[in-house]
C-alpha cells in the first residue's frame, strides 16, 4: 500500500488525477490518497464530492509547516505530487506576491519537510519515495519562430506566474542536487478537460457561448498553445511517478498546436453558435507568442503515448460542460465557495 499526498487536489488537474488514480488502483490494497488543498477561489470541493469517502481530504496551505509535518507523520507519505499553485497568468500580472508565497515558498516548505521525513539514517532516503513537481512549459518562455521546448531548453519565464513556477523548479532541482532528495519535474503544455475553472480559455469560451455572451480574444487571436487532454496528462504523471528516473525532468505534450482563434472557432462550431460572438480585446501584457513541447523524452524513455486525439478530447470536453451546467453555474455564482466557507472542519 503506497501513500500519496496530493496537494492542490481540489483544482482542475489535481481532481482529474485523483479520479484517474481511483479508477486505476484499489484503495483497499494499493493506494491511500491524502488530498491537501487551501480551497482558494480555484479549489472546488464539488470536484471531489462523488469520491470524498475514498480519499482523506484536508483543508490547508502547503506553506503551513506544522500541518505538513503532521500529515507526513500521520500518513507515512511515499509520494508527494505538488499540483498546488496560483495558476492564472492574468492574476499574476495584477498580484505577483501571492504567486511567490504559494508557488515558491509553499513548494520550498514541502521540499524541506519531505527532506526530513524521508531520510532513513540522516543521509539516505526510503526506497520508493518521490517528490513530483507539476510544472509548466511556460517556464521556457516564448517561441517566436520554429522549434520546440525540450528539457534542455534554458528557462526564460516571462510572466510573474511563469517566474514563480521556474523558481520552484530550481528549488526542486537544488534539493535533489544538494540533499539527494528523490524528485521528478514534469512540464506540461496547456491542459483542457472537465472541471477546469471557467477563467481559462476553453471553459470560459464554452460557458460564454452557451449563454450567447461575447468571447473576448486577446490581440488578433494568433497566439499558439499546444493543447493536452487532462486524461492523457494524468496517465503521464502516474507513469513518471512509477518509472521516472530519479532527478529527471520530463516534458509532456500532445503535439496539438492551435491558435487561440482556431480553438474559439472549434468551440463555436461544436456548440452550433455564430462567429459573431468573437470580440477582440487588447493583448495581455508580455503575452507569450507560442508554446510547443517536444515530448520525445517521455515517449522514448517511458513509452508514453497520448490516447486521445484533439478532436475526441475537445468534443468530450464541450459535452462535459453541457452535461454539467450545474457545476459551472455554481462556480460562476460563487455558490461553490459559500457552501464550505462556513464549515469549520472538513
Ligand atoms: P488550479 O488553479 O485549477 O488548481 C490549483 C489548486 O491549488 C486549487 O485547488 C487551489 O485551491 C490550490 N491551492 C492554491 N494555493 C494553495 C496553497 N497555498 N496551499 C494548498 N492548496 C493551494 O490549477 P490547475 O490548472 O489544476 O494546475 C495544477 C498545476 O499544474 C499547477 O501547479 C499549474 O502550475 C500546473 N499547470 C497547469 C496547466 C494548465 O493548463 N492548467 C498547464 C501547465 C502546468
Note down, in words, how this protein is organized.
Residues 5-317 form the NAD(P)-binding domain. The protein is 42% helix and 17% strand. It is α/β, with parallel strands linked by helices and 346 residues long. Strands 3-2-1-4-5-6-10 form a seven-stranded parallel sheet, with helices on both faces. It has a three-stranded mixed sheet with strand order 7-9-11. Helix 5 (160-179) links the parallel strand 5 and strand 6. It starts with a strand and ends in a 5-residue tail after the last helix. The mean pLDDT is 95. Nicotinamide-adenine-dinucleotide binds next to helix 1, strand 2, helix 4, strand 5 and strand 7.
What strand order characterises the main sheet?
Answer: 3-2-1-4-5-6-10
Name the shape in a single word.
globular
> What small ligands are held by the chains?
nicotinamide-adenine-dinucleotide
CATH topology: Rossmann fold
SSE string, helices as H and strands as E: EHEEHEHHEHEEHEEHEEHEHHHH
EC number: 4.2.1.46
Family: Belongs to the NAD(P)-dependent epimerase/dehydratase family. dTDP-glucose dehydratase subfamily.
Protein name: dTDP-glucose 4,6-dehydratase
InterPro entries: dTDP_Gluc_deHydtase, NAD(P)-bd_dom, NAD(P)-bd_dom_sf
Amino acid at each position: 500500500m503506497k501513500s500519496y499526498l496530493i496537494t492542490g487536489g481540489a483544482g482542475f488537474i489535481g481532481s482529474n488525477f485523483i479520479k484517474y488514480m481511483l479508477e486505476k488502483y484499489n484503495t483497499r490494497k494499493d493506494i491511500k490518497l491524502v488530498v491537501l488543498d487551501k480551497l482558494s477561489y480555484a479549489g472546488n470541493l464539488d470536484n471531489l464530492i462523488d469520491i470524498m469517502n475514498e480519499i482523506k481530504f484536508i483543508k490547508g496551505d502547503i506553506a503551513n509547516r506544522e500541518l505538513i509535518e503532521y500529515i507526513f507523520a500521520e500518513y507515512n507519505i511515499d509520494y508527494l505530487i505538488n499540483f498546488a499553485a496560483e495558476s492564472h497568468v492574468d492574476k499574476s500580472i495584477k498580484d505577483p506576491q501571492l504567486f511567490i508565497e504559494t508557488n515558491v515558498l509553499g513548494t520550498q516548505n514541502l521540499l524541506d519537510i519531505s527532506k526530513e521525513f524521508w531520510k532513513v539514517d540522516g543521509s539516505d532516503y526510503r526506497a520508493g519515495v518521490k517528490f513530483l513537481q507539476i510544472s509548466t512549459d511556460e517556464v521556457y518562455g516564448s517561441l517566436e519562430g520554429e522549434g520546440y521546448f525540450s528539457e534542455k531548453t534554458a528557462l526564460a519565464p516571462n510572466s510573474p506566474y511563469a517566474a514563480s513556477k521556474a523558481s520552484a523548479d530550481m528549488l526542486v532541482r537544488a534539493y535533489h542536487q544538494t540533499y539527494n532528495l528523490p524528485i521528478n519535474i514534469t512540464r506540461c503544455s496547456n491542459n483542457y478537460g472537465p472541471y477546469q475553472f471557467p477563467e481559462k480559455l476553453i471553459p470560459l469560451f464554452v460557458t460564454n457561448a452557451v449563454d450567447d455572451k461575447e468571447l473576448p480574444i486577446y490581440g488578433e487571436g494568433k497566439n499558439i498553445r499546444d493543447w493536452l487532454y487532462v486524461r492523457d496528462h494524468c496517465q503521464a504523471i502516474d507513469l513518471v511517478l512509477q518509472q521516472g528516473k530519479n532527478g529527471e525532468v520530463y516534458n509532456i505534450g500532445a503535439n496539438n498546436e492551435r491558435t487561440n482563434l482556431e480553438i474559439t472557432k472549434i468551440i463555436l462550431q461544436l456548440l452550433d453558435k455564430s462567429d459573431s460572438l468573437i470580440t477582440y480585446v487588447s493583448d495581455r501584457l508580455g503575452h507569450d507568442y507560442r508554446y510547443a513541447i517536444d515530448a520525445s523524452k517521455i515517449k522514448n524513455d517511458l513509452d508514453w503515448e497520448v490516447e486521445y486525439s484533439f478532436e475526441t478530447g475537445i468534443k468530450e470536453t464541450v459535452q462535459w460542460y453541457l452535461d454539467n451546467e450545474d457545476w459551472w453555474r455554481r462556480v460562476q455564482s460563487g455558490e461553490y465557495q459559500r457552501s464550505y466557507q462556513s464549515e469549520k472542519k472538513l
